[in-house]
Design a protein that fits this description.
- By secondary structure, the protein is of the alpha/beta class.
- The protein has a single domain, classed as NAD(P)-binding Rossmann-like Domain (Rossmann fold).
- Helices cover 47% and strands 14% of the residues.
- The chain has helices at 22-32, 43-48, 51-57, 70-84, 99-102, 112-136, 163-185, 208-218, 226-237, 262-278, 282-285; strands spanning 10-14, 36-41, 62-64, 88-93, 139-149, 188-194, 248-251.
- Helix 1 packs across helix 9 (226-237).
- The longest helix is centred in the middle third of the chain and has 25 residues, at 112-136.
- The chain binds nicotinamide-adenine-dinucleotide.
- Residues 14-15, 17, 21-23, 41-42, 45, 66-68, 94-97, 121, 148-150, 194, 196-197, 199-202 line the site of nicotinamide-adenine-dinucleotide (NAD).
Length: 290
């Protein structure tokens, strides 16, 4: 049930591919809170995913846009303002993709044209969204823009590969643009650093099920779910958080401030007992999996 936290607000939601997508959950919650919005995704995702179904449910339209293409973004903002009847109040950038991860290229053997693509899709696209919006003066005063990040921007995680570099850049763009857009037009820009969440993009990360379990055991409050992430986004889109900007906000059940938890320690001890009994398994010793 909604509380009209976004009543009268207009938004653009990037990245709702299917009901598992974090963006899908954010769009549903924003609608529940009284917002109107357009949905957008890259053409191939619109053909293969279920974005249109969500649009029907939310009584809105899907506008195709590749977030790395400035012409597409121009069209997206102009059409969204026409359809929604005014300037935009909130934007969710929920986009991530790494060809190096997809093709299982090791971090010490990256394909650099893939890396360019990773950075462009997962980070520079955020700059393109902001620059396009600012040039069109498409976002209302006190508007709020959020991009989704991951703690691998600050700490090294096995298997996260070049997406870690993309997330560091994404968070930096939020700060740099947040200063300019805040100073000039009072637009807030933040990143939310979310727990591992079972989605299409998430499950592309090597060892994702183990990562989910580790993170759950390490976090005093447990992993934050996609639905909980949507709740958090709503607070940041609302007028209740008007002075929050240029932040990377951890939404991770406490994970980012942990070093070792009892639950992880107990699981680790079980592994040691197992190793003493059966010997270390070969995968753990094979550094090609690092
Ligand atoms: N799932 C997790 O564990 C997790 C954790 C922290 C942060 N995140 C971040 O959350 C965001 C959303 O991912 P998700 O987990 O909901 O997965 P998802 O696969 O549902 O969403 C990723 C979206 O990016 C879109 N996309 C890819 N290339 C694009 C392009 N060129 N233009 C426009 N859109 C494009 C995809 O079509 C898809 O809709 C990503 O930034 C991801 O890195 C995810």
């Amino acid at each position: 049930m909604g509380n009209n936290l976004l009543k009268g607000k207009r938004g653009i939601i990037f990245g709702a591919l299917n009901p598992d997508s974090i963006a899908w959950k954010v769009a549903e919650r924003a609608y529940e809170e009284g917002a109107t919005m357009t949905l957008t995704n890259v053409a191939v995702a619109l053909r293969m995913g279920e974005t249109q179904k969500l649009a029907e449910k939310l009584n809105t339209e899907v506008i195709s846009a590749d977030a790395t293409n400035v012409d597409d973004l121009n069209n997206l903002f102009i059409k969204s303002m026409e359809l929604l009847g005014g300037k935009i109040d909130f934007v969710l950038h929920s986009i991530g993709m790494s060809p190096n991860v997809r093709k299982e290229r090791h971090y010490s053997d990256l394909n650099y044209s893939y890396l360019d693509k990773t950075l462009d899709v997962s980070a520079v696209s955020f700059h393109k969204v902001l620059q396009t919006a600012r040039k069109l003066d498409a976002i209302n005063e006190w508007g709020s823009v959020i991009a989704l990040s991951y703690v691998a921007a600050q700490r090294t995680f096995f298997g996260y590969n070049d997406m870690a570099d993309a997330k560091s850049l994404l968070e930096s763009i939020a700060r740099s643009f947040g200063y300019i857009y805040g100073r000039e037009r009072r637009v807030r820009i933040n990143t939310i650093s979310q727990s591992p969440t079972l989605t299409t993009a998430g499950s592309g990360v090597k060892g994702f099920d183990r990562l989910l379990d580790f993170s759950e055991r390490m976090s005093p409050l447990g992993n934050a779910t996609g639905d909980e992430c949507a709740d958090y986004c709503i607070t940041l889109f609302s007028d209740l958080t008007k002075k929050v900007t240029m932040q990377n906000l951890f939404h991770d059940g406490g994970f980012s401030n942990m070093g070792m938890s009892l639950s992880v320690l107990q699981q680790y001890e079980k592994g040691l007992v197992h190793d003493e009994k059966y010997g270390q398994d070969s995968e753990a010793k094979d550094h090609s999996f690092d």
